[in-house]
Structures are given as C-alpha cells and as structure tokens.
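Morning run. Coffee first, then this:
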Amino acid sequence: MLASRTDAVKLAFRSNVLDFFAMVQPVRSFIEVPRESHFPIQNLPFGVFQPKGGSPRIGVAIGNLVLDLSILEELRYLDVVTEGVVAAGARRRRIFGRDSLNDLMALGRPAWKRARDIVQHLLSAETATLRDDAELRDRVFYEQSEVTMLLPARIGDYTDFYSSYHHAHNVGTMLRGPENALMPNWKWLPVAYHGRASSVVVSGTEVKRPRGQTKTPEGSAPVFGPSRSLDFELETAFLIGPGNKLGSPIPIERAEDHIFGIVLMNDWSARDIQSWEYQPLGPFLAKNFCTSISPWVVTLEALESFRRPLSRQEPPPLSYLDRANDSTFDIHLEAHLRTDAMREPHVITRTNFQNLYWSLAQQVAHHTIGGCNLQTGDLLASGTISGPTEESRGCMLELTWRGANPLELPSGEVRKWLEDGDSLSITGWCEGDNYRVGFGEVTGRVTAAT
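And here it is:
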C-alpha cells in the first residue's frame, strides 16, 4: 500500500511539473542565491561531481550547492527517458548515476529541456517537494566546496576554431603586416584544426610546462628544452549531443539541436614551439600538452535571454553557412593572473563572446559539410576571443605584442609570458535583471617542466 501511494504521489508530481511549466517559468528558488552568484535558478548548469567516499554522478549547480540528480532519478522524481524522447523499452534506463554527461547528451534537446524543467520546478520557491522535506534535502544537496568536480564528458574528438576576427587580425599583423593580416579564406569559412582530446583536463589541474624544439631567428639550428613562451588562450567551447551519420552533413538550421551546452576553455599554448613547428600544417606539440575546461556546462536554454543578432558578415557567407537571423550571445569574459608573489589575482583582459565572427551554428555546419560525423561528447572550441581594444585581447601573445610590451602587475612584477608558479583563471557570465547566468571558472597553475 505504501509503495503504491508513493508512486501515486510522484505521478501527481510529474503532472504538476507539466502544468507548472505550461503556466510560468520560476524566477525564485527556495535556496538563497547571492546576487553575484553564477548559478541562480535561471542557470542550472550540468556537471559531474564526486562526493567524499562516493562514486561519480551528475549534478546541477544552484548557488553554492550541488543538487544530486542521481538520487532524484532513483526516487523517480527525475525520469527524462520517455517514449517520444527515445525508443520504447528504454524508459527505465538510468542516466544520472554516471561518470559523464554523454548518455544524457545523446538523448537530444527534448530530454535536456525536460530534465532542466523538472529540476527548475523542484528548486522553485513555490514547490514543497524539496523545500519542506529536510531529510530529502540532506540526501540530495552537497556544498560545492566539499565535492570534487570531474571532466563533464568523455571527449572523443576536439576541434579548435579560429573564429575571432580581432585575434586573427592581430596575429596576422604580427606575422605578415596589417595589409595582409587575414588569409584570403578567413571571411569565407570558419578556419579550424583538429586538437588532442586526451589532454583535455578539468579546471584545477596543474599545467606542466612543455618541452620541445625551438629556434630563434639568429640560430643556425633548433634546440631542445622547456618552452620559454608559455601562453594562455581565453576561449569557450561547446559539447555535441546527438551526432550525425557519416556522409550526412548537419544543415545550419538544425545545428543548434546538436549543441548540449557551453564551457569555458583555456587552450594553453607554447608560442616558441609553435612558431618553429606550425609550417606548413599548423600547431602540434605547441597545443597538445594541455587544454583546460570548466566543469559546469551551461545549456543554450539558460542563455536564451542573452541571445543577440550576429554582426553583419561581409562577404555574405555561402548558402550552407547562411542562416536567417543567426545569433550570438552576450557573455562577458575575463582572464585573471596571479603570481606566487600576489595575494589576489589581477584582471589582465576583459572581452565578450560577441567578438566571435562565426556563430556556433556556422561552426557545426562547416565542420560536417564534407560528411564528417560528429559524435556525442565531441568538443568544439571558439579559438582565442579578442576584442577591438588592447585591454580586450585574449592571450599574452596579443597583450604583450609578442613580448615587446610586457604586462606590469600590481606586485611590481612584469610578464611577457607565463612563468612557473603563475595561476591563470578565466571566468564569464551573462548579466540579467538582478541575476547572473555564469560559467564559474577554469583555472590552471603552471609548474616546471620535468
């Protein structure tokens, strides 16, 4: 009798969720969330965490807490695998007690939206389910400071685009002069290269200075040793949900249906190794030693209020890259540097996601137009995001103009490039009406080469 009564309560709860979202979206949670927090009820990013003494599982960030979705799924408050989302027979498949988001991402947007809607309803100040059940709250909530955040996905492949006009123009100016800054193809297609997925790490992982061949203009031969020009790159990246079949490109009109969400990225770069090795095929050892991403994945649903028109592209893109009313997002981005001699980090750049020339949809459409099959968990990055001013450049290469104009720090130190012991953090958020939808941060500390 008790089991049937409990099931009846949960069936009624799921019906109430649908009725609730048919009427109104919640704007206030029973969890107190500070105004400056990145994780209000309007956000609810997904991530993979591990509590002390426990196994990895999927959670959602709310304020300073993590909500354990695996327990909600176990108690049947969170059943997102239903007929109409996937084939019948998969109804009871567990999704949230996993060590990656891949199974959730593979389900597609209807399941992602359903999961987010249910969680948002449970966290609403109007919903008693968690609000009034202290025992249940004790089971499902953890302090973020008391859990370990893990890599959010099993990343099969990683592609790094080169989508910021100002970054491409600045780098091209250094190499070829302002009159030939952009290569002839740059405004015709989203330039990219394939990176190394195995060395993508979660925020907080230390970054060991790489070694490799370098050659100065004066040298007659290259030398081998630690990189002396270690750099960061302020980027974002997005994770692919459902993929496409080999030989079947994704039309630009449906490209965003394949994007689960966005993370912050630091694509660490060894500029002296890169300048020697990149011709004719591009970066290799200069990029493959470490790429850091933030642990929380912000969904496109959470970013809808911050969608903005994509700037005019000239020349007009070819038809497969042309989407009516294509868009971008207003995301404020910052990079902070802290040396061993500094107590507090110092902001060294401020830029915005809107400085990207190519949209997310264009990147997906171009990536697949030749028949390439994207797969669940693939990571596609923006490339360095730089703005039009000196203060909005997204890497040390630009900020110091290849070392010619060193950064002066509040500690009295100067930096041409990153040194051992330096910590670099990237953060970003969208500014709402008395709330923020943020990404947390991605941080790494440079350690000496072996």
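Residues 2-23 form the longest helix (22 residues). Good start to the day.
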